Amino acid sequence: MVTQSARHGFSQAASHISSIEAGQNRRFRQAQTFNRDSTLEELWNVWNSCKERNWDSFGAFPVPQDCYLYAAELVRSLSYNFPAPSFGAEPDGELTIEWYKSPYRTISLSMTSDGYIHYSAIFGPKDFVNDTTAFNGELPSDIKALILKVLR
Amino acid sequence: MLDPDNVADVNNSEMLARYATQSSHFRRIDWTAKQDLFFPHPHIELSVTRHINATEDEIWQIGRNVAELQNKTLYGRADVKAEVFIEQELTLRKAPLANNPNHANAVGWASDKPNQKSKAQLIAAKSTFVKV
What we know:
Structural class of chain B: alpha+beta
Order of helices and strands of chain B: EEEEHEHEEHE
Structural class of chain A: alpha+beta
Strand content of chain B: 25-35%
Strand order of the largest sheet of chain A: 1-2-3-4-5
Shape of chain B: globular
Oligomer: heterodimer
Strand order of the largest sheet of chain B: 6-7-4-1-5-8
Largest interface: A-B, 32 and 30 residues
Largest sheet of chain B: 6 strands, antiparallel
Number of helices of chain B: 3
Number of strands of chain B: 8
Radius of gyration of chain A: 21 Å
Helix content of chain A: 40-55%
Number of domains of chain A: 1
């Protein structure tokens, strides 16, 4: 026996509902894609502002292109409904990727040019977690869990 | 400003300023400083300016001088008490400059990056960002 939901029915109403849903889904996907694009654009802008030596006028090391490419790969690996991060750079030539809820609920990742992530998450004045892990093309599960804990 | 010929050691209760000349060093959503602003590498020391004996105008003028030297925009400054650095097991050393007798350095940073990040985050969390 085959059962059909209303949206897969044959009435004009069902067809109308189905077309509205399709339009909403399309707009939702476009909005999410736009957010990802704008996030990648922000990342590129940060990298572009610190890819030359001495970008801070205090002797900062340049951020290598590989660093940017790894960070972009990490952003692309995030699911559409994952919160967007913000970006920065450190004078030792690494890009930072941050998720933030409040001053004492924040996690910062430093992407290296050889595919490692240094990270630190804080949850209170004396409550923090930090480590270094390899980046294998997607957000490591332990870091993802920390991000979700920060944003909870 | 401090007398360049008689600069006292940094006291734990002093207020210190760190100038923001990169838009990615703070968050516009709530005007708070990011850890990036307090990150010491590659010098392994972090440059700060002491509020002591300085007027508000003088503190901002030093920031404008820093930004001009960097050919950057001064967005604001993060104020934080010296004791916050001490809590992170850092040492504050007076380091007067010709044009800034109130200059000091925070030294003694951990050599490993994850611990540097945590210290910078915890200092940033206790700072107050002041817009230009």
